[in-house]
Input
Amino acid sequence: MKKNHTISIQYHSYLSKEELSKKDQLLLNKAVQLSQDAYAPYSAFNVGAAVQLKNGEVVGGSNQENAAYPSGLCAERVTMFAASANFRDVEMECIAIYAGSDTTAQKQISPCGSCRQVMSEYEVKQRKEIRVLLMNAGGEVWEFLSCGDLLPLAFDFTALKKK
Output
């Protein structure tokens, strides 16, 4: 018997970061600053990301391209890997992501599939949701209350555990 199902997500949108808390504004400002450090000579698509940790630390990164394209890494993964490597047992509370290019002034950006999978993994690992803030070059912000909202039906490591 065929059954129909629906998956839906919710998010909040803001015309500018000034509508957010000061803490979120600072995190987005850090992501914007970090986007200027991106190594993006091939795409000219500069992305910065900053993670707010529970201990108050902020860890950031930017996209790093390579002439051998698969060897590059997105800002979101650079940032989350650095946070996990340097603050192994500290929860990630929020990740702010900014894409600054002419093409993102009117269009909202979102993480690629690989980044969504990594973000989801850290959320499952810490057993606590991680908020996501996306900001485009036009200043519009989208807020997701969980990385899981960006990747419903994500594959996670609990499927790999042996009985």
Q: What stands out?
A: The chain has a mean pLDDT of 93. The longest strand covers residues 92-100.
